[in-house]
Amino acid sequence: MFYARGNQKQINARVCVLLLVGTLTIGCGGSETKEIIEYKGPLSEIDSVELFYSENDRVKVKMTADLMYEFENGDREFPKGVFMEFFDELGQLESTLRANHAYFFSKEDHWRGRGDVEVKNIAKSNQLNTEELFWRRKDKKIVTDKFVTITREGDVLYGQGLVANEDLSEYAITKPSGDMEIKE
User: Taking burial as the number of CB atoms within 10 A of a residue's CB, which of 15, 35, 79, 181 is the most buried?
Assistant: First the structure.
């Protein structure tokens, strides 16, 4: 029971103050759990990147990019594109790959190029153009299910989908279309 001395106005004021303090105490004293938000963005951002891949102490691939994001799981994103040069065992330039946007999937150990993707075989003067392709570094293959255009000595081949060697020395268009001249 609440006892107070004084006139009614003082009692009412004290009750109001006690109610206000009690309300604030209850409102502030509750333990409110906040949802933890996990950051999924890049851990680092690197400008003007130049990376080399080597096998048996020989450079096999040189990659340059204006910007690279590196993620916690080892994935890398190249939002401003990449340019790759592929070299043979003697260190001679075999082919190049250019893409407007690229992504390296660390766990699967393969690359995806998007945008205006272009692969050139220097020795054979072959050129592949497509909007997306995947480069599997382990088996040195390029694959896509998108529309492709291959330009080679006097011929232009079109089709949907492709499996090719990384240097474009051999390729198979999944669903070819267009005219092709066959030399005997």
Answer: 79
What separation, in Å, do the N-terminal and C-terminal C-alpha atoms of the chain show?
111
Q: Where are the domains of the chain?
A: 44-177
- Tokens at residue 6, please? 């004084």
pLDDT in tens, 77-100: 999 999 999 898 888 999 999 999
Report helix, strand or coil for 158.
strand
- Residue 111's nearest CA partner among 149, 152, 151, 68 is 68
* Window from 8-12, 91-95, 128-132 with minimum mean pLDDT: 8-12
- Does domain 44-177 bear CATH number 2.60.450.10? yes
Residue 89 dihedral angles phi and psi, to the nearest 5°: -65, -25
- Distance CA(16)–CA(40), nearest Å, equals 49
Q: Which residues pair with 147 in a beta bridge?
A: 160
